[in-house]
Design goal:
This is Histone H1-like protein Hc1. Might have a role analogous to that of eukaryotic histone proteins. Belongs to the histone H1/H5 family. HCT subfamily. By secondary structure, the protein is mainly α. 93% of the residues lie in helices and 0% in strands. The chain has 2 helices and no strands. It is elongated and about 50 Å long. It starts with a helix and ends with a helix.
Length: 58
């Protein structure tokens, strides 16, 4: 469940940069959003593997 909390906090942290990119046209904020989304993707993959592993052990 700790990893899931990390996902939630990462999304919350990206919210300000997403606003800057989409509403104010700040391209540097867009770069930060892209990096954060990649981190989110990697974290989601780790969670998927943990869930699958736990499921297979049961």
């Amino acid at each position: 469940m700790k990893k899931f909390e990390e996902v939630k906090s990462l999304v919350a942290a990206l919210e300000a940069d997403a606003d800057k990119f989409y509403n104010k046209g700040n391209s540097a904020a867009g770069t930060r959003v892209r990096k954060g989304m990649q981190d989110l993707k990697n974290l989601a993959q780790v969670i998927r593997l943990e869930v699958q592993d736990t499921k297979n052990k049961a």
